Amino acid sequence: MTLLSWLHRWTGGIVGLLLAILGLSGTVLLWEDSWILLPGAGDPVANDPAMLGRSVAAALEAGPELSRLTFASEEIGLHQAVYADGSGAYFAQDGVLVDRWASVWERPELWLFDLHHYLLMGETGKTVTGILGLLLLAFCISGLVLWWRTRKTFRFRLWPARFTASAVVRHHRDLGAVASPLLILVAFTGAMMVFPAISGWLLSPLAHEMQDVALPDDLTDHSAQTDWTLVMTRAQAAFPDAEPRRLMLPAEAGAPIAIRFRQDFEWTPNGRTYVWLDPGSAGIVGTSDPAKQDLASAATEKFYPVHAGKIGGMVWRLLLTASGLALVLLGALATWSFWTRQATDISSKRAGRWSSEISARTADSSGSPGS
């Protein structure tokens, strides 16, 4: 138990601030639909293929290197375009340009997303956030084990009674016990998204072999003559009751256009239903229906919406907000109290050594022949 306490304390002191950053950025992102106040952000969604086709054409006109266009949703009533050079734009549902940016730093929701998912360090940062998720799992479990010995002294507080090391530790212990069930779920879903190999291993009993969709690679590339209304109409016909969520243009010549749809049973906001089309003829060359996939895929699809509060309505979002703010307090105060205690211990040791040296010198002076 002593070793467990030592590992919990030292590891928390080292990574606590990073966990606080993830908690704060994630909490703010939960409510992005409330603070993106651009014109049209609150418009009701219209999934008319003709309107969507005009919006695709408008996004291509604004920047020919369009990578993808995420269609308006109930959260944000604007289409979001992403271009190959890292720039982007918001379009109203009638195709009118609302805002344009050259980098993610010009839009707070974009750099906050990058901070939360990548710590502003690209793929390396993504791996770090996954490791932090696994560490948070370990903190919650070890913290509950350590708390169990002192459960009779439990007293819930939102804030430490005093800013002393002992008071902060008691607050950390009791707040952690309350927040751990939710934090375990958040940490698990976040880590599994970063490390699909681990989730694949855990869910392997529910999986069965699936064949990849064979797609052609010799199609005609899209051009100014591409009829985007026809593309959207034919894609919608493949899944008439599904909601169109995202159009992705091929990164390589000869590849098809991909359009993601969301069916009623899917939790993921952008869905995992795919339709691939020939850019030249608007003919369908492939589809992928998650209703025909295995239970492992169905479980994996739930990770993001649970983690990001995309299901469960206001109640679940409020619970995630509470757990995110709890993580901010747990991480920040753990780092502060740990390093404050380390600094105090170092100062005490130095003071002790100086006192011993002074005493020794005094004794030597008192015992010298000339005294």
Automatic annotation (TrEMBL):
The keyword Nucleotidyltransferase does not apply. InterPro entries: PepSY-ass_TM. The chain crosses the membrane at residues 12-31, 128-148, 182-203, 314-339. Keywords: Membrane, Transmembrane, Transmembrane helix. It holds the Pfam family PepSY_TM. This is Peptidase. It comes from Aurantiacibacter atlanticus.
